Every structure is written in structure tokens, then in C-alpha cells.
């Protein structure tokens, strides 16, 4: 498979190693100074860039009939436009806030726990995410997915907010500590106890492998998909 890497930073470079080990070829790597690139030589594109350019990268792929896997977070105000463009072009597109198998299992655990807790008003929920100090967005895309999944299961919660919450708003605390690849905790506190579920990434390999598996999976398909489709879970 011929892969274009849109964004060649920490994730782009980790994906490159895994893709080559799985027998794929990297035909294009794009960083910020190369905005006028030819994507048409690629069988699939993998975008791990920055929030302000992700939608342009995705649009370029869809306009050139190249399936695109996006892991960039912090651009979701344009997600519906990407979905509409994908449908208009009969293209193929996946966005996931987190491509690791472990986090996708954690997402399912979070939904199940949220459903169980939805009738137990004595528990207050809070979330925390910890990432490295270069991260541009807060809260993380994964934390937003976790919060939205709780809101879908528990009618008591209507939204989420960075740092502060109230009875109907889930607080998400974002901490930045050097070299942390990504830690997410969902906590339910009552007067008598606390229930925590937590995912700790030890490195970026899990995110990168998931993105390459998604790229292998999407070839020959048309539509807007999620990691639940790729992993056949949920
Ligand atoms: N979904 C998931 O599983 C995961 C998602 N992420 C997300 O992926 C994104 C990238 O993360 P990470 O690799 O750690 O970040 P990095 O900052 O290490 O890499 C981003 C790269 O994008 C480059 N870039 C800037 N402008 C453009 C452009 N116009 N086109 C293409 N590339 C450009 C940057 O170049 P320069 O440095 O020169 O600006 C940089 O090399 C983030 O949004 C992060 O949140 C991260 C891990 C897992
Ligand atoms: O920026 C990162 O590094 C990560 N970003 C993603 C997010 O925002 O959830 C996924 C992972 O936690 C690493």
C-alpha cells in the first residue's frame, strides 16, 4: 500500500516505522512548509498534523479520491463539513480521537460504566487527561469522546467544560507534563468512595498501529467510518 503521511512529527514518524514493518511504502511526507503537494500518487493518506490544517488536508484527499485516516484532534468544528464532502465525493474517511486498541476498549468500558451510574445520583463524575507539554489542544480529543459518550448514556449530564463542572456539566481537567504520551481517567466520587477507570499509554506505538490498521482496512471502501467499524467492537 502506498501511504501519504500528512504531518511528519512524533506520530507521523512512528506511523512510518510501523507501516514499513508491515510491508507498506511511504510515498509522501508533508510538514508545514509543503502546502502544494500532489496526493494522487497515494493509495491512502494518514493525517496526524495540527488542528488548523487538518480539515484542508482531509479535503484535499477527498477531492482527489484518496481515502483518508485522520487522527489530528482539535479541528472538529469542521467535522460535519468533512462528512458532507466525503458523501458528495463518494470517498472514504475515518476520524478517531484515539486509534489505540486499548483506548477503544476503554471507550466501551466508559459507556458501560456510564450507563450503570446514570441512576446513582450520589456520584459526581470528573475527568482528567495528562499529555506532554507540546500538545496544542485541550482538552484532548480522547477526553472529549469520553465525555460525549457519558452524556449519551446519562441524561443528567448536558455538556462538558475545561476545568470546571456543575451538576449537569462534566469537568475535564487537562494537565501538561513533559513526555507523557497520554493518560485518561474517569472518576465517580461519592461521600463514601471513589470509582476510577484509567487508560495509560506507555508510548505512541498503540496509536500508530491502530492508524495503520485503519488505513489497511479502508482500502476499497466508501463511506464515513469509525474505529468501531475497523475493530468490529461496540
Ligand atoms: N487519534 C490519535 O490516536 C492520536 C492523535 N494525536 C493527534 O495527532 C496530532 C499530531 O500529533 P503529534 O505527531 O504528536 O504532533 P507533532 O507536533 O509532533 O506533529 C505534527 C506535525 O504536523 C506538522 N504540520 C504543520 N503544518 C502542517 C501542514 N500544513 N500539513 C501537514 N503537516 C503539518 C508539524 O510541523 P511543524 O512542527 O514544523 O509545525 C508537525 O511536524 C495532534 O493533533 C494530536 O493530538 C496524537 C496521538 C494519537
Ligand atoms: O496529542 C497527543 O499526543 C494525543 N492526542 C490524542 C488526543 O487528543 O486525545 C490522543 C492521545 O491521547 C495522544
Structural write-up:
Strand 3, helix 2 and strand 4 form a beta-alpha-beta unit. The protein folds into 2 domains: 121 residues, Rossmann fold; 101 residues, Dihydrodipicolinate Reductase, domain 2, CATH 3.30.360.10. The model has no long low-confidence stretch (mean pLDDT 97). Helix 1 packs across helix 6 and helix 4 runs parallel beside helix 5. 36% of the residues lie in helices and 25% in strands. The strands form 2 sheets. The chain has a 6-stranded parallel sheet with strand order 2-1-3-4-5-11, sandwiched between helices. It has 234 residues and is of the alpha/beta class. NADPH dihydro-nicotinamide-adenine-dinucleotide phosphate binds next to helix 1 and helix 2.
How many separate structural domains?
Answer: 2
Distance between the termini: 28 Å
For the secondary structure, the number of strands is 11
Q: Specify the number of helices.
A: 7
Average pLDDT, to the nearest integer? Answer: 97
CATH overall fold name of the largest domain: Rossmann fold
Tell me, what's the shape? elongated
Keywords:
5-stranded mixed sheet; elongated; 36% helix; binds ligand LZUJQKHR; Rossmann fold; binds NADPH dihydro-nicotinamide-adenine-dinucleotide phosphate; 2 domains; alpha/beta; Dihydrodipicolinate Reductase, domain 2; 234 residues; 7 helices; 6-stranded parallel sheet
Amino acid at each position: 500500500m502506498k501511504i501519504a503521511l500528512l504531518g511528519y512529527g512524533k506520530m507521523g514518524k512512528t506511523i512510518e516505522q510501523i507501516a514499513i514493518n508491515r510491508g507498506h511504502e511511504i510515498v509522501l511526507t508533508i510538514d508545514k512548509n509543503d502546502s502544494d503537494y500532489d496526493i494522487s500518487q497515494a493509495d491512502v493518506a494518514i493525517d496526524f498534523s495540527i488542528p488548523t490544517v487538518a480539515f484542508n488536508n482531509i479535503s484535499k484527499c477527498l477531492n482527489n479520491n484518496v481515502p483518508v485516516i485522520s487522527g489530528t484532534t482539535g479541528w472538529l468544528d469542521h467535522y460535519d463539513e468533512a462528512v458532507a464532502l466525503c458523501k458528495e465525493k463518494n470517498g472514504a474517511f475515518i476520524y478517531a480521537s484515539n486509534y489505540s486498541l486499548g483506548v477503544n476498549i476503554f471507550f466501551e468500558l466508559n459507556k458501560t460504566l456510564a450507563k450503570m451510574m446514570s441512576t446513582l445520583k450520589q456520584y459526581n463524575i470528573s475527568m482528567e487527561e495528562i499529555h506532554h507539554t507540546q500538545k496544542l489542544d485541550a482538552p484532548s480529543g480522547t477526553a472529549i469522546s469520553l465525555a460525549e459518550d457519558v452524556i449519551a448514556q446519562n441524561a443528567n449530564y448536558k455538556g462538558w467544560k475545561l476545568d470546571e463542572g456543575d451538576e449537569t456539566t462534566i469537568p475535564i481537567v487537562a494537565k501538561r507534563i513533559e513526555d507523557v504520551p497520554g493518560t485518561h481517567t474517569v472518576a465517580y466520587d461519592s461521600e463514601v468512595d471513589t470509582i476510577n477507570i484509567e487508560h495509560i499509554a506507555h508510548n505512541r506505538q498503540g496509536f500508530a498501529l491502530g492508524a495503520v490498521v485503519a488505513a489497511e482496512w479502508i482500502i476499497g471502501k466508501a463511506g464515513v467510518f469509525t474505529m468501531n467499524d475497523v475493530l468490529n467492537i461496540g
